[in-house]
Write a structure and sequence with these properties.
The chain is an alpha/beta fold. It folds into two domains: 109 residues, 3-Layer(aba) Sandwich (Cobalt-precorrin-4 Transmethylase, domain 1); 121 residues, 2-Layer Sandwich (Methyltransferase, Cobalt-precorrin-4 Transmethylase, Domain 2). Strands 3-2-4-1-5 form a five-stranded parallel β-sheet, with helices on both faces. The radius of gyration is 19 Å and the shape is elongated. The two termini are 35 Å apart. Bound molecules: S-adenosyl-L-homocysteine (SAH). The site of S-adenosyl-L-homocysteine (SAH) has 24 residues, from helix 4 and strand 10. Its EC number is 2.1.1.107. It is an enzyme of class 2 (transferase). Pfam families: TP_methylase. One of its GO terms (biological process) is methylation.
Length: 252
């Protein structure tokens, strides 16, 4: 065992969506720092490790980023193998890139491990194909929430011709809707709202751009959720969904 920090994507929630590489790194870890949106079931892969919750719901109310960084550094400098588990993919709205650069600048060996990001998993779990021949030739992953509240270029997004996957959008639904409508996206554009993707409590609601705020309120949409906006969200691939439901039942 040697000093190293793994920045690991834990995927969207379903423990079976973890990569083999993540499982191997967890088995090596002596200290595991676990974020909010990580399914604690994943910890079965590191029974040997000391686990520290660093998320808002994990005991410490909103652990400051600088504190987490110093914690990783301290354990690594004491010669330990540290795993930092993040929801989804560490480099999709997960600060993985920042943390890797900071650790490397402090002379710590660091390795990023991909996870399946919530936007991709959420769509698939609902039978939505984010790209679809003849319908969507690309995907844009975008966050509705920025640290400095700088505005998004809604017009560019509306006119991109790609499927939009919006993260951190639950408290910004009106802004997303108004921005895209003003940017020229058609009012009837299909929208899928997917909450707790890949977890047993997953819920989804199909809607349209013009109705999404109303529908989300009726549905009581809660975070964590993603929005899939584009023609593909109207395609209900029920065969794929049926198969997914069957597989899950088989597992339980
Ligand atoms: N790194 C993560 C994203 C972190 S930002 C990833 O790659 O998935 C947090 C946002 O991710 C949430 O506000 C929500 O929009 C989305 N999210 C994370 N887990 C989710 C889940 N299981 N279902 C739906 N959305 C999720």
């Amino acid at each position: 065992m040697h000093a190293k920090v793994w920045l690991i994507g834990a995927g969207p929630g379903d423990p079976e969506l973890l990569t083999l590489k993540a499982v191997r790194a967890l088995a090596e870890a002596e200290v595991v720092l676990i974020d909010d949106l990580v399914n604690p079931q994943i910890l079965e892969h590191c029974p040997q490790a000391r686990v520290i919750a660093v998320g808002k719901r994990g005991g410490c109310r909103s652990t400051p980023q600088a504190f987490i960084a110093r914690l990783m550094l301290r354990h690594a400098r004491q010669g330990r193998c540290v795993a930092r588990l993040k929801g989804g993919d560490p480099c999709i709205f997960g600060r993985g890139g920042e943390e890797a650069a900071w650790l490397q600048a402090h002379g710590i060996e660091t390795e990023l491990v991909n996870g399946i990001t919530a936007g991709l998993a959420g769509a698939t779990q609902c039978g939505i194909s984010l790209t679809l021949r003849g319908i969507s030739r690309g995907v844009t992953l975008v966050t509705a929430h920025t640290q400095d509240d700088s505005p998004l270029n809604w017009q560019a997004l509306a006119q991109s011709g790609t499927t939009l996957v919006v993260y951190m959008g639950v408290s910004k639904l009106e802004e997303v809707q108004q921005g895209l409508l003003a940017g020229g996206l058609a009012a009837h554009t299909p929208v899928a709202m997917i909450e707790n993707a890949s977890l047993p409590q997953q819920r989804e609601r199909r809607s349209s751009l013009v109705r999404m705020c109303l529908d989300a309120a009726h549905f009581k949409l809660r975070s964590p959720a993603i929005l899939v906006i584009g023609e593909v969200a109207a395609v209900d691939n029920s065969a794929a969904r049926l198969q997914w439901t069957t597989v899950r039942r088989g597992c339980n």
